[in-house]
Write a structure and sequence with these properties.
With 333 residues, the protein is α/β, with parallel strands linked by helices. It contains 6 helices and 14 strands. The longest helix is centred in the C-terminal third of the chain and has 15 residues.
Length: 333
């Protein structure tokens, strides 16, 4: 199950206290101070890993606390520092300060690290406070408190190809046909309620990571329906496939459907509207769909690639066209 948002609390460890201690040995009746410093508290560190694809595990725990440093010991011994708490998050996770709302870092690369809560420093032992006028200091410093903060995590999928269209446009059927993903498929709108990701083989040696997003409806950029929640995942895609149903049973006329999707992409983000795209006429099984395809091309002003995920026609050509754009070998039409 994909979860792309989570609010958690991170708590770094406190530093260990410094020690008040004096040297006590045989034949050394008035030994000086020898209290050691406390150890440092552990940090909370995020590590981006491709081993994870969802924030579900992190969101369920919701609180992450590192250990405290140990207090200092006699004979100037420093207390042990606590180990850092390493929290693995999916690649593509954006980390925000929940209270201030500012972005701390976008963990967009595998292995990227971010210290989200710094551990407290260890307190100083009384050995540091001896002076010429106070050779028997009976004071030490307490360890510092570790940082404590609330974070908001957002996951943006790192797919190369994003599938965008109205509900029931055939996105899930296409994804299931060209990848090993098994999204829910049914003949009614809003079958897809969360993003699905699959890997498609293109030719003999290449692959594409494809993301299927819930269908858009008019007003999605203003929060209507489900699709607006997931348009952020398309921002990282290299190419967008705009899928439009051209069958006789389509919920919208092809030209009108294209206008809705194109408007919502532009309203959500001007940058998203400028991304490379391919227009795809789906469910082109009927011989009578030619007129609807021409109407779609006239409304969009660009040619459409016809496919039928049911019959398997046009899929190889579409994947090759998308691959060429992703690899920089061609430009979108």
């Amino acid at each position: 199950m994909l979860r792309d948002e989570a609010v958690i609390e991170v708590i770094a460890g406190n530093g260990g206290d410094g020690l008040v201690s004096f040297r006590r040995e045989k034949y050394v009746p008035q030994g000086g101070p020898d209290g050691g410093d406390g150890g440092a508290g552990g940090d909370v560190v995020f590590l981006a890993s491709r081993e994870h694809t969802s924030l579900l595990r992190i969101g369920r725990r919701f609180r992450f606390a590192a250990g405290n440093g140990q207090p200092g010991g006699p004979r100037k011994r420093t207390g042990a520092s606590a180990e850092d708490l390493l929290v693995e998050v999916p690649v593509g996770t954006q980390v925000y300060d929940a209270q201030r709302g500012n972005l701390l870092r976008d963990l967009a690369e595998d292995g990227a690290r971010l210290v989200v809560a710094k551990g407290g420093r260890g307190g100083r032992g009384n050995v540091h406070f001896a002076t010429s006028v106070n050779q028997v200091p009976r004071v030490a410093r307490r360890g510092g408190e570790g940082e404590r903060r609330e974070l908001r995590l957002e996951l943006k999928l790192l797919a190369e190809v994003g599938l965008v269209g109205l509900p029931n446009a055939g996105k899930s059927t296409f994804l299931a046909r060209v990848t090993a993903a098994r999204p829910k498929i049914a003949d009614y709108p809003f079958t897809t309620l969360q993003p699905e990701v699959g890997i498609a083989e293109v030719g003999d040696y290449d692959t594409l990571v494809i993301a299927d997003l819930p269908g858009l409806i008019g007003g999605a950029a203003e929060g209507v329906g489900l699709g607006h929640r997931f348009l952020k995942h398309v921002e990282r895609c290299r190419v967008i496939l705009l899928l439009v149903d051209v069958s006789s049973g389509a919920l919208e006329e092809p030209g009108a459907a294209w206008c809705v999707v194109d408007h919502e992409l532009g309203a959500f983000s001007p940058e998203l509207a400028r991304k490379p795209r391919l227009l795809v006429a789906t469910k082109a099984e009927e011989e009578s769909c030619d007129e609807r395809v021409r109407a779609l091309e006239q409304a969009a002003g660009i040619p459409a690639l016809r496919i039928s995920a049911v019959k398997g026609t046009g899929l190889a050509a579409l994947l090759e066209a998308a691959r060429a754009i992703v690899r920089g070998e061609a430009r979108a039409i």
